[in-house]
Amino acid sequence: xxxxxxxxxxxxxxxxxxxxxxxxxxxxxxxxxxxxxxxxxxxxxxxxxxxxxxxxxxxxxxxxxxxxxxxxxxxxxxxxxxxxxxxxxxxxxxxxxxxxxxxxxxxxxxxxxxxxxxxxxxxxxxxxxxxxxxxxxxxxxxxxxxxxxxxxxxxxxxxxxxxxxxxxxxxxxxxxxxxxxxxxxxxxxxxxxxxxxxxxxxxxxxxxxxxxxxxxxxxxxxxxxxxxxxxxxxxxxxxxxxxxxxxxxxxxxxxxxxxxxxx
Length: 263
Fold this sequence. Notes:
Elements: E1 2-3, E2 6-7, H1 11-32, H2 34-38, H3 40-68, H4 74-106, H5 113-120, H6 122-145, H7 152-173, H8 178-194, H9 207-211, H10 238-246, H11 251-262
Antiparallel strand pairs: 1-2
Transmembrane segments: 12-35, 41-65, 77-101, 121-145, 157-175, 181-200
Region (Disordered): 203-263
Keywords: Membrane, Transmembrane, Transmembrane helix
């Protein structure tokens, strides 16, 4: 898969992101348009797709991308993804329970014991969603908090506070049917362009080349035009000839020069 920045490394994650975009878009259409006008069951299906399926796919994409990018260890990423998927399931059940309760109150749904029981479980589902979401955020955030200079107790307190307040904020933001669509698009674009390989640095831009003074030949090579500078020259290496010409050099250098000449 090609992108303006290069060839994407995360092809599987990108395709899964496209599936998440399509799922969220279908959920938006069912929740706001087709489902609301045709059948409450279709509107419920839109809620399931938007609040459950699309966010779960995004969590899988982000977990796989984070592991392959070496941002998060695999154990933390898998744990956070599993907790997040469980939180999405509980949140979807809470939204469905809320909708059934409103339908029963408005008389749009026949009152049955099962429907009333499902509506009464709203607080149970909501109470399950919050701890699971906070645990998922804490697991993912703990990796980055450990890299700070805070002590271990302070790191735990900071991560817990952020997770407790971030989990319901994220969950409430996904109640809006357009949020899963925008989040799916953003994650897919991130995966596509984050996979573009960086251009290799040119030899002239390398630190070794920059540190070499202009006009000075590298060590062990004669300047252009000097004897022995041509490739394949049979004369002794440049540093040995310089030491012999100036009368300097150790006995080991002289021995090496004689050996070279005898070869």
